[in-house]
Write a structure and sequence with these properties.
Layout: H1 2-8, E1 13-14, H2 29-32, H3 39-47, E2 51-52, E3 68-73, E4 79-85, H4 91-95, E5 101-104, H5 108-111, E6 114-115, E7 118-119, H6 121-124, E8 131-135, E9 138-145, H7 154-164, E10 169-174, H8 182-189, E11 196-201, H9 207-214
Parallel strand pairs: 1-2, 10-11
Antiparallel strand pairs: 3-4, 4-5, 6-7, 8-9
Length: 215
């Protein structure tokens, strides 16, 4: 990926992010966040005259900059389309991982503004209500679709309600769910002998973390 960007030279304008960093013993999150995983790549980019933004998007630990953005310009230098999503631009990311990709041809994201770290209601308002699967302008099937980000966690409340309404069982996959929320609901339901509850969780909070969260 770095070699491909290097070929673009001055035509490329780049913002670098960091990966999943774990703070070392005795090291705070702020200090860990300053560790530059892109040091070698940055040297190659600078040498090729690539415009690397001064402000890096170093979020980990504490958050993960997993979404990627690519804005393609037309011959006149005007934005044509944007490509974003969680897909990693590497052979393993493209061929062995399950992620999403989104091609954007409208500019509401650019016109929107950030308020307290969240985008304005201009973008969030349409996500407050669920939709369905569309085909040729018509809703098909009985699948409910939510888009993020919502406000007041209305999507998670709907999911929790659906899970609690299970009649026979609950099958789940959760990525770092935390001790509260839907995981708490499923954990309680697992004690019901009339329900088949099975699933996989990537990471569980320790008893100490759970106690600290509740204090």
């Amino acid at each position: 990926m770095v070699a491909s960007v290097v070929k673009l030279g001055k035509k490329a304008h780049l913002v670098l992010s960091n990966g999943s960093i774990t703070a070392k013993k005795g090291e705070g999150a702020a200090a860990a966040r300053k560790r530059d995983e892109n040091a070698d790549a940055r040297k190659k980019l600078f040498k090729a005259k690539v415009d690397v933004m001064i402000a890096d998007r170093f979020l980990s630990p504490g958050a993960l900059g997993h979404n990627k953005f690519l804005v393609r310009m037309d011959k006149k230098g005007k934005p044509a389309v944007a490509w974003t999503g969680s897909t990693n631009w590497a052979p393993t990311g493209l061929c062995t991982q399950v992620n999403n990709g989104l091609l954007i041809t409208i500019r509401r994201l650019r016109r929107s503004t950030l308020i307290n770290g969240l985008y304005s209601g201009m973008l969030r308002a349409p996500s407050q209500k669920p939709g369905g699967i569309q085909h040729q302008g018509k809703t098909i099937g009985d699948v409910t679709v939510w888009f993020s980000r919502t406000t007041q966690k209305v999507d998670l409340a709907a999911l929790d309600e659906a899970v609690q309404g299970a009649k026979e069982g609950v099958l789940f996959l959760m990525f770092m769910p935390g001790a509260a929320g839907l995981f708490s609901t499923v954990a309680k339901m697992s004690g019901n002998p009339k329900l088949f509850v099975r699933g996989v969780v990537s990471t569980l909070r320790t008893a100490r973390e759970t106690k600290a969260r509740s204090m």
